[in-house]
Amino acid sequence: MRDSLSSASITDGLRTRFIGQRVIYYPRLASTMTAAKQEAQRGATEGTVVIADEQTAGRGRMKRSWLSPKGNIALSIILYPTITSLPYLIMLASLAVADAIEAVTGLKTQLKWPNDVLINGRKVGGILIEGEVRGRKLDYAIIGIGVNTNLNPSHFAELLPVATSLGDELGGEISRLAIIQRLLVKVERLYLALPSAETIYGPWRDRLVTLGRQVEVSWGRTRYQGIAESVALDGSLLLRHPDGSLSRVVAGDVSLRG
Ligand code: ATP
Ligand code: BTN
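That is the input. Now the predicted structure with adenosine-5'-triphosphate docked in place:
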């Protein structure tokens, strides 16, 4: 039977200090990012979580849409970090998603630069960071997390070749509550470890399946090819081109080759 989400079911017994101690739950919402942004602009307490059972206009990176039907996990966490912590939010969120999936389901995950969580090479989770910078100060940051829990990829032609879900991998209905709670605990633990970025950067780098692989990176209309050599402390990808030169890719979309 499908679990039922509510603010109380998430906060009950949640072992965090502040992340997820306030949960705003919607059965149906355009995007938790938009609602979280409005909450942040009104000064919501740090760690407030906006969660929806179903999103009708979920957003992905690079202005893409994110399919988020009923039964998936779609949530946004409001934070007020320093601007120097911003690059680490992607890393910590990716690690937390991977950890929560592995701890609760036993499935093995991989991370693909910059922020995809994969199972057997297919995308099971995505992370979107949005924030507002004023001058040299960050007003707020929002970590958006989508995990395909009970989505059936075969119902969505465009997802079938690239996506998977926990339910599909395990062959049954997945309870979201344990995953959400573990995820919030892990995000808080890693967030509190900042600004010691090494505790986040090292484990993130070590889990990237992208490194050492021949990749194609697209950024707008530009495409670069090369070997993904390493990632810098700020999360950017260092790409070795066939002519031996090295470039740094700050954002973009990576396809793994071969
Ligand atoms: P473009 O053609 O510009 O590369 P697109 O048409 O593939 O973009 P969308 O259809 O908006 O863009 O989808 C964005 C990407 O994210 C696609 O690769 C899509 O398969 C993927 N995507 C969307 N929702 C999910 C989801 N729930 N799980 C996994 N992947 C998803
Ligand atoms: C990506 O891989 O492109 C990022 C996907 C992020 C999806 C999540 S679901 C919760 C939050 N609300 C949104 O509209 N997007 C993020």
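Residues 86-105 form the longest helix (20 residues).
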